[in-house]
């Protein structure tokens, strides 16, 4: 299969491209190295892609380009069977600081891609959405029909993206599916995320810092589970036009997360609290029943297991990854 992964130099897109290559698919990655966080991680990801492609004898090309560039997008979408759209300006706080940029990339970039996919008759577009579309919880865990009242510009762009995808399916018969990811973590994760920060501080014997009282809860999803859901969807038309939650179906407080990291690395270290940051959702928790029923999705790890694997990876890659976390 010829697969285009937008944002494929990034964290999740990088893992997706790696897995598709290992399966022997022909993969094109489009990424513009958006300077949201250290480019070093993305360069590392591309070198992993080249290694995996060589081992699997799979065709791989990287195109440095922007999803907002109509001509580039038309050209590469025309060569794809399936488009897996991960490119976005991620980050809730960044979207509060810079709402025009996040709208530009996440909404206009997505429309470019859908338009090109419609013209090229691609088989399916799989889009990365987010738990941020829900906003304030009326009931937890979130089921897909829970009201959507995003509390950040980022959440609004992801919800708009979902509606655009649905409209392209309804108006033009373009098969699309949107996956609402819940806080994804794992190797090569963005360095400014809570888990990488907690690990980095505890590895160095420094107290982990929590913003707020630590009672915010999150559903943390191991990146391999996100990859599995996308892999299933390459071949399945069971959910065209749908949105699916992709989470761990468990939620823990940030304090418990910090304790889980601390207990594995530096038992006894005290946790420090600083003032809360704006526009962060208070609680997220996914119901994955729909994804289970429709595509057989099942989360594979507990948070303690996932954190343990991430710590192992962190220690093996500490030399190049840690300075990036420290600088974030
Ligand atoms: P990421 O920032 O690591 O990856 C996004 C990639 O897109 C980056 O490599 C960036 O350079 C690229 N990009 C940004 N703007 C672009 C543009 N205009 N043209 C081409 N490439 C561009 O983020 P991630 O964590 O891997 O997230 C991937 C997707 O999943 C995003 O759509 C994000 O909104 C969504 N998501 C992520 C999480 C999470 O916890 N990581 C949760 C929910 C949803």
CATH domain class name: Alpha Beta
CATH architecture type:
3-Layer(aba) Sandwich
Q: How many structural units, i.e. domains?
A: 1
Mean pLDDT: 95
Spans of at least 5 consecutive residues whose pLDDT stays below 50 are: none
Provide the list of bound ligands, each named once: nicotinamide-adenine-dinucleotide
Can you count the helices?
Answer: 12
Order of helices and strands: EHEHEHEHHEHEEHEEEHEEHEHHH
The first-to-last residue Cα distance is 37 Å
Radius of gyration (Å): 19 Å
User: Which term fits the overall shape?
Assistant: globular
Give the amount of beta strand, in percent.
15-25%
Main pleated sheet: 7 strands, parallel
Q: Major sheet: order of its strands?
A: 3-2-1-4-5-6-11
- The CATH topology: Rossmann fold
Number of strands: 13
CATH superfamily: NAD(P)-binding Rossmann-like Domain
Q: Helicity range of the residues?
A: 40-55%
SSE-based structural type: alpha/beta
Protein name: UDP-glucose 4-epimerase
Family: Belongs to the NAD(P)-dependent epimerase/dehydratase family.
Organism: Halobaculum gomorrense
Domain NAD-dependent epimerase/dehydratase: 3-247
